[in-house]
Amino acid sequence: MSGFAYAAVAVVGAVAVLNLVLTLALARRLRDMRAGHAHDHDGEPIPEVLPAPGLDVSGFPHADLTTGRRTVVMLTPTCPPCQTLLDALTTDAERYRHDTLVFMIGTPAETATMAPRLTGFDTATMSEPQAEKEFQVKGFPAVLSVVDGVVVDSSHQLPVLA
Questions:
Q1: Whole-angstrom Cα distance, residue 145 to residue 155?
Q2: CB 96: neighbour CB atoms within 10 A?
Q3: What pTM does this model have?
């Protein structure tokens, strides 16, 4: 075999090994993401800001979340993504109003501008520490799907309704 053929086989082998290494790295990354062990660019764990499915919120004293399906939306008056979600919620109020409970995060004075936009929704005001304690929410906006007092899904977006 000529030197050219050996070089070609070596290049093809190197590309195959590189492809295998990258595929295994991608598989590991996806497995870590599914397991909830996301990391930032420096390798540090990214803290969870939404509750994991299975959190029991049936003992929350300010609203009955023990039976049926409820969408719990938590908004702060100062975050731009919360304002965008509030716009979407109020624009499509007829679709969301029947099962949605909206917590305005902050003092009544801080949330006073939000309250008139939420007429017809079940609303309550809650402090940020209370949201973290009761619902394990550390990032806003937060949208929780609660079934019979248990969180089944959490997101930063409103659910898509059929």
A1: 9
A2: 20
A3: 0.70
